[in-house]
Amino acid sequence: MSTAYVHMPDEIECAPKEIRDHYCRMIRDGQSESWALMCALQTPPGTKGSDRAFMQGRMNNQQLDEMPVNQARYISKEARQAGISIEGKYYCGGIADKRGWRDPRAWVSGNDDILNVAKERRLMVSGSVNYDPGVAPPKRVKMSESIIREEAKKYKKLHPNLSKGEIRHMVIEKHSYKAKNRGV
């Protein structure tokens, strides 16, 4: 390679003279550009799952720069009105609730934020963070009072001599969910 000119990436051009010289020496010695860049800047390569890799190009709200100006202003304004500081954060719509960009948990600073929200909201996420909550256990709720009243009317016709309490107990025993190994 010629000693007169070495193509320098932007990161190297903006760096101090010693770093530029180190990069140029490595290129002249036959090293690849990516290896020389990594060694000269003393930065390890980005890896999947690291906050550095996830937030690269996202730290200063670059996502808003890629939107139409009016839309970016609108989103920024509404997020601030909702009490959210968007500085140094990235809006991750895949984990947002129905409030969208007004959801403070959807503005993340790194992978840990995404993982915490995914666990809390039982969301399946894949990409920089991989999390699968699995099948949710069924929610068991008490039998609706309206159902109990409707069924009690039917039972009262069949058993007119029983008290309200006894009829209520019969309805609940007959129509409510019975878990296995409950002992009943």
Structure report:
The longest helix is centred in the C-terminal third of the chain and has 14 residues, at 145-158. It is built from nine helices and two strands, in the order H-H-H-H-H-H-E-E-H-H-H. The mean pLDDT is 86. The chain has three domains: 1-45, no CATH class; 55-121, no CATH class; 145-175, no CATH class. Strands 1-2 form a two-stranded antiparallel ribbon. The protein has helices spanning 10-13, 17-28, 33-41, 51-55, 62-65, 69-81, 111-121, 145-158, 164-175, and strands at residues 90-91, 107-108. The protein is mostly helical and 184 residues long. It is elongated and about 105 Å long.
**What percent of the residues sit in helical stretches (DSSP H or I)?**
40-55%
Order of helices and strands: HHHHHHEEHHH
Rg result: 31 Å
Order of strands in the sheet with most strands:
1-2
Distance between the termini: 85 Å
Number of separate helices: 9
Relative strand content? under 5%
User: Unreliable segments (pLDDT under 50, ≥5 consecutive)?
Assistant: none
Specify the overall morphology.
elongated
Structural category is mainly alpha
Number of domains: 3
The main β sheet shows up as:
2 strands, antiparallel
Number of strands: 2
**Mean pLDDT, as a whole number?**
86
List the helices and strands and how they pair.
Elements lengths: L9 H4 L3 H12 L4 H9 L9 H5 L6 H4 L3 H13 L8 E2 L15 E2 L2 H11 L23 H14 L5 H12 L9
Antiparallel strand pairs: 1-2
Helix pairs in contact: 2-3, 8-9
